[in-house]
Amino acid sequence: MKLLISHASPYARKCRVTALEKGIQGIEELHVSPLDEPEKLNHLNPLGKIPCLIYGENKTLFDSPVICAYFDEIGEGPRLMPKDGNAHWAMRRHEALFDGLLDSALNIVIDLRKPEEQHSEQWQQRWGCAIDRALSQAQNELDKIEGDLSTAQIALACAIGYLHFRLGKHDWLAPYPYLNEWYEAFAQRPSMQATQPK
Ligand SMILES: N[C@@H](CCC(=O)N[C@@H](CS)C(=O)NCC(=O)O)C(=O)O
């Protein structure tokens, strides 16, 4: 299997953490810069985004939730996402919330990379508020998120890691001490340590 990644991509990190936690061996990580090397990526993922997994006989999977679900299925150990029922949908909801948090953070990063006169204060504020509401809900629902390792925990930890990595000037977790405590402990896992963004 080959996984197209960059060391800075938080979506790729979700997949890499999941693969490590599920004991999946033999994944070759190929480093791709989606903006600079579209020819390496676009024929595999028409959306031109990483992560993208190549498996089997040149089959591809993209979008980190799909790749994580695939790793959960083929890997060892307890499932990271309950197979069905209410627990499944509750976890899917949390995964969507934390992936959406990540999308808002990435939107801010992209906006900040534009020439200054093209920055949009209004959109940055909107995305920032979405991040804050998602973090607030994560802390309020921490009792449901904590516990056995799960897809939702990995998505949340990678999203918070990205806030620290790219938008660390702002202390996003200051209002959420319990969430911060949870994150600090989770970030010590070998899978998180091995995939720190660069
Ligand atoms: N929903 C996708 C988002 C992936 C994504 O946006 N990846 C970024 C890198 S962090 C990318 O490849 N961006 C290139 C682009 O948007 O053209 C996922 O969960 O995998």
UniProtKB/TrEMBL annotation:
UniProt xrefs under CDD domains: GST_C_6 (cd03205)
SUPFAM superfamilies: GST C-terminal domain-like, Thioredoxin-like
Domain GST N-terminal: 1-79
InterPro entries membership: Glutathione-S-Trfase_C_sf, Glutathione_S-Trfase_N, GST_Omega/HSP26, Thioredoxin-like_sf
GO MF entries: transferase activity
Pfam families documented for this protein: GST_C_2 (PF13410), GST_N_2 (PF13409)
A GO CC term attached to the entry: cytoplasm
Annotated keywords: Transferase
TM region(s), chain numbering: none
Lineage top rank: taxon: Bacteria
Protein's name in the database: Glutathione transferase
Species whose genome carries this gene: Maritalea myrionectae
